[in-house]
Amino acid sequence: MLQGKTILLGVSGGIAVYKAAELVRLFVKAGGSVHVVMTANAQQFVTPLTFQALSNNPVGRDLFSMDSESQISHIQKARMADLVVLAPATANLMAKMAAGIADDYLTTILLATTAPVLVCPAMNVKMWEHPATQRNLKTLCELGYRIEPPASGFLACQEEGAGRLADPGDILESSIGLLTPPTLAGRSVLVSAGPTREHFDPVRFLSNPSSGKMGYALARVAARRSARVFLVSGPCSLAPPPRVERICVTSATQMRDAILNLSSEQDAIVMTAAVSDYRPARTAAHKVKKSPEDLSVLLEPNPDILASLGQIKPPGQVLVGFAAETENITQNAQDKLVRKNLDFIVANDLTREGAGFCSDTNEVKIIGRGGEASDLSLMTKEEVAANIWDRVERILSGGDIESQQ
Ligand code: PMT
Question: Which of 197, 210, 359, 388 has the most ligand 1 atoms within 8 A of CB, as the residue to mutate?
Fold first, then answer.
């Protein structure tokens, strides 16, 4: 995700410096080349050696160091960065940036760089809420800096409120977003994900093993491409990706209502949810008691959400379905494509190793309206998602003629 990208991580002096070490690890794991620059105060909290070991690069810390000036100057550092991330960014650093002060290694780089800069503030809640900090924050936004807002919670200073450094995973996600071309900017998309639960009493239900991973990957990748993303999610344990508007539902009818409520304004809808085809005809008000007798539960069909979307599809909207199959994959998927009036369908062979439910990978066949099919090899669900959005983008721009036939 960050392959070939150089991230310059600026670390200023606050208790959250130790979390910046985890951030370096995440950047490196995502394939980025990381160069850390520390202020003098940051070095009071964690030694540069930690960051050097994690990034595998020398740590910049002294503007007048003969070593760093002869090998690689602050101007060179400013030029080499594809992205600058400031984590933690203290109130002092924000104030200097708002005023254009450049009196140490990090702040000189910040004036010299033309790369996007992501500011991740962390400080005491009173310092964060102080009118001077809020004024500086406004100035930084006006100057074009991107802000990863601090989280709320229990702070190191024993106070409660906003000021915790944002989750390193969220900072990574925002960083990837800033480095991803905004090919879905101005577009609104809806993704459904996860299973549905159809209760036959308050504590028992009919469901399936969907983890939500495929749908959440689609939502995450669309948000990185700057789409407005609605994620209608059945019950699952995944956290919503940053900048995604999640609507949580339980049953198929709740999912249908949530989706139909939003569908007319969407440029594209991708249905990955494993919607239960049936639900118990009756739901008991209380837990059904055990008895020696057999128990029969009468099932009735659920509404087919995707088929309804196919009937009311506005002109220009791209509608994508998934087909979870265990036999006659292509034929069954093609039938669903036609019956549900889709632009294309993603056929999932559930019998394949590493494909389908719960895995981080998937192996799918994408079938278009013209019958053309492309087999994607085994890849991560994020890579499958990228392939799907590439195709959606081509149709939206009028470029994918065959799938529109
Ligand atoms: O969540 P994961 O663990 O990552 O697993 C991913 C997945 C296997 C769930 C996903 O890749 C997948 O294949 N999703 C489709 C599951 C499914 O319900 O397939 P289907 O062939 O039964 O349905 C065809 C299409 O109609 C699907 O887009 C489905 O969302 C939709 N549908 C189905 C039934 C129904 N009542 N309403 C619907 O809208």
Answer: 210
Clarify whether residues 137 and 196 are in a common domain.
no
Rounded to an integer, what distance in angstroms lies between the CA atom of residue 74 and that of residue 42? 18
Do 174 and 210 lie in one domain? The reply is no
pTM over 0.85, yes/no: yes
CATH code for the domain in which residue 276 is found: 3.40.50.10300
Question: 234 lies in which domain range?
Answer: 188-404
Q: Is 216 in the pocket of ligand 1 (CB under 6 A)?
A: no
28 within domain boundaries: yes
Q: How far apart are CA 318 and CA 267, in angstroms?
A: 6
Mutate-to-test residue for ligand 1 from 322, 352, 353, 383, highest number of ligand atoms within 8 A of CB: 322
Per DSSP, the three-state class of 66 is: helix
What six digits make up the tokens of 54?
């994690």
The tens digit of pLDDT for each residue in 329-361 reads 999 999 999 999 999 999 999 999 999 999 999
The count of structural domains within the chain is: 2
